[in-house]
Amino acid sequence: MRILVLVLSIVTVLITSFNIVISLDKVEAQNTNISSSEEVIEKEKNEHEVSEYIEGEAPLYIDGIVVVNKDYGLPRNFKSDLEEEALQAVDDIIAAAKKENIAIKVRSGFRSYDNQVQLFKTYANRDGSSKANTYSAHAGFSEHQTGLAFDFTTGKSNKSIGVWFDDTAQAKWLYENAYKFGFVLRYPEDKDHITGYMHESWHYRYVGKEHSKNFKMNDLTLEEYLGLYDGSSDNNEDDDLDDNLDD
Fold first, then answer.
1. pTM value?
2. Which of 200, 210, 223, 224 is catalytic?
3. CA distances from 116 to 80, 88, 124, 125, 246 (A)
């Protein structure tokens, strides 16, 4: 009888131990799955399709978007395959705004390398190179050379674009609607330490609706969106800027 009781006790202990091991294995497996999922999410978040960049020869493309800023430029004779698509989107913007009695027109679109040379030179002579560099690009580093960047203005104005545009009905309409047509506000407020340029309420860049839908709050830069900015640098400058500017 005692032997039977002893055997039953041993069996009970073995079964309990086995269940504990199984439970621990399940917990470990769950933790492994959680870790794996987190790694996949982080990997997907950080993964971008990036092309080879050769200054003056091959522009940088990330997720199909050509990158143009102070660090990455364009070949002298660059031409985008999306230029016609962007121009159609501009026409759509103007037509949509008109239906709401908002008159919008383009102040500046495509600008050649040579034109940008002259424009930056004019600003540098007037304001000095350091100040000009906060609102105008050197030749080869201007988004206007892509044919995908546009400076918008009011329907009746022929004067140079500038901060006067900020409080117009046109600026407000573009701020609220441009993303619907594939455009992003390229230089948002308080982002000059990322973009290298002052806030420009008139400068919009065509990236296509697939991407622009992620910018509808207008608080994101292309540098952040494409993983080019990690938050480690801050070069804010509070210089006073001229009232009339064409970047």
1. 0.77
2. 200
3. 17, 24, 12, 14, 10
